[in-house]
Amino acid sequence: MEPIVFDDVTKLYKGRSSTSQVAVDHLRLSIAEGNVFGFLGPNGAGKSTAIKILLNLIFPTSGQALLLGKPAADTAVRSRVGYLPESPNFYDHLTPEELLWFGGKTSGLRSNQIKERTDSLLDLVDLARVRRQRLRTFSKGMIQRAGVALALVNDPDVVVLDEPMSGLDPLGRKLMADIIRRLKHEGKTVFFSSHILHDVEDLCDQVGIIVNARLRRVAGLADVLSVPATGWSLTVKATPDTVRSHLTGVTATHTARGGLTEIRTSEMDLGKLLDRLGALKEGLVSATPLRPTLEDILLQEIEHADGESR
Amino acid sequence: MKHLWPIAKITFLEGLRSRVFFGLFIVALLLFSSTYTMSYLFPHDVVKVAVDLGLGITSLVGLILTLFLGTQLLAKDLERRTIHMVLAKAVSRSEYVVGKFAGLSLIIVCSMIVLGGFAAFASWTVDLLTADQYGVVHWPTFVLALSMMTLMFMLLASVIFFFSSFVSSTFLALGLTLVIYLIGQSVEELKHFLETGAEGVAISPVFLKIVTVAYYIFPNLAAFNFKTQAAHGLSVSLSDVVWPFLYGVFYSGVMIASAAWIFRRREFT
User: Which of A96, A153, A188, A219 has minimal CB crowding within 10 Å?
Assistant: First the structure.
């Protein structure tokens, strides 16, 4: 049984006139148990709408979303789900301890379980020393961390994170990435949307790209990224003038980067280039194959979608 | 309905920790202290005036508290999307509405105990300092008046919840509830006047019908007013208490059930 299923989900918003705006268009998606799934797309693509349908905050116009095999409208199933909203707002009159007590109680946990989970989670998100301080005094990053603790207080099987990295400093992002890795290690299913593609590349097993309300591609991250190199990027410790003198007869471009020079060439010309650069070999800093990144793939999908809508 | 307590508790804490709550209590303290000077302006009815003033101040502060906290508690959750965090847990929408109402009711009950305590203290000290011929405090009716006032505010809170369940603006919910309060305070008197006391005045049957319909639709808040009986020590029959009590519970129940029904159909974008 897949823990998360979108079964042909469509969401239409009625406009002022008789027109309707499609927020999610026939979304069919299943996420396997223990997978970390990255849900990508530009702003307004339908990511948050899909997540809200999954949590029964809004209702699909047609189709249905299933969580752990139960319809999203089933209240009880949410005791096995953790959710971190985008830019979370919690009751700021509460302390982290009270917030987790609330989360635990509403998930059916006993008081001793809540105490245990609160201690370990506040340590995990580095809020133990401010456990009795009201949330209204917290920074955005601290609120986000309190939100993560709240999402995990019930030790959920499924964790849904809506833009968990947005607005976090590098340390906060690292902490969040570590938590997602830990969840994966524990066999939890994680569904998260993000704009920060580096994090997606780093953490996900599978990605889905949604553009203009339609899911354009779902693939394992390895499949997406393990395409043959289209060229090579070499960085050498030499001035552009020195490099230029070695490039006669080779199809390559070069750019100055600080005291270094980056040279780009095709797969075919790599051998020839390395021969020519023989004299500079000691100055070779790096050689990297050029492959489409997740960002390139996302941009490609956006362009396709734009082309279709024209 | 097993998650009512956590929702009620955080709602209660929210009310208790809000600035409005403390501000109003400071104002209430100042108003209660004025009871001493105001009462002695009426030397023959000192105690009656003290009781009347004390209950009047309790009623005024209780009303402001109910209106402001009632509209804020739900509207803030919707505006700031805090509701997402609650509904993403294993909490049904009906539990959310009933839990919030229970929390607000708890705030109202506690506030009325404290405000009523202030009023009782002021009345008691005036009574202590005054000869019995200028009146005594009739404690059973005093407590009854406070209890029925509390029930009335809970009813009003349920009306606020009903409006907040479908109105998106806090001010609109506040305005509508205020209108209901004003109608509710006077509709019984108006109906009575039109039926009996308008001698020589031609009353349109349509108007009378409208007032009669309004009498049954809007909450009859005057039925909860026992301030006069408390001040004058008038006797109150059991039916004068039981019927308004049952009416208050039933009316609040209908309002909260309607709010929960609307919430179950509402989307939280």
Answer: A219
CA A167 – CA A196 distance, rounded (Å): 11
B158 pLDDT band (50/70/90 cuts)?
very high
Number of compact structural domains in chain B: 1
Interface of B with A (CB under 8 A): 2-3, 5-7, 9-10, 13-14, 17-18, 80-82, 84-92, 267-269
Mutation for B interface: A91, A97, A143, most B CBs within 10 A: A91
- Alpha carbon B115 to its chain centroid, in Å, reads 13
Torsion of CA B21, B75, B166, B68, to 10 degrees: 20
Q: At A231, phi and psi to the nearest 5?
A: 175, -170
CA separation for the pair A273, A103 (Å, rounded) = 61
- Inter-axis angle of helices B46-79 and B19-39, nearest 10: 170
B62-80 tens-digit pLDDT: 999 999 888 888 888 888 8
- Helix/strand/coil percentages in chain B, nearest 5: 85, 0, 15
CB-based contact A91 B10, cutoff 8 Å: yes
Which residues of A fall within a CB distance of 8 Å from B85?
Answer: 83, 85, 88-90, 147, 150
Burial of A37 (0-12, 13-18, 19+ CB in 10 A): buried
pLDDT in tens, B185-203: 888 878 777 777 656 677 7
Residue B260 C-alpha from the chain's centroid: 21
Contact B89 A79 (CB under 8 A): yes
* Banded model confidence at residue B37, pLDDT cuts 50, 70, 90: confident
- Structural domain of B17: 4-265
Q: Do A103 and B89 touch (CB under 8 A)?
A: yes
Domains of chain A: 4-222 (3.40.50.300), 231-290 (3.30.70.1510)
Average pLDDT per 10 consecutive residues for chain A, totaling 310 residues = 90 79 90 91 88 93 92 91 88 91 91 92 90 90 90 93 84 89 92 82 86 86 75 84 78 83 84 76 78 78 76
Token pair of B94, please? 């009906």
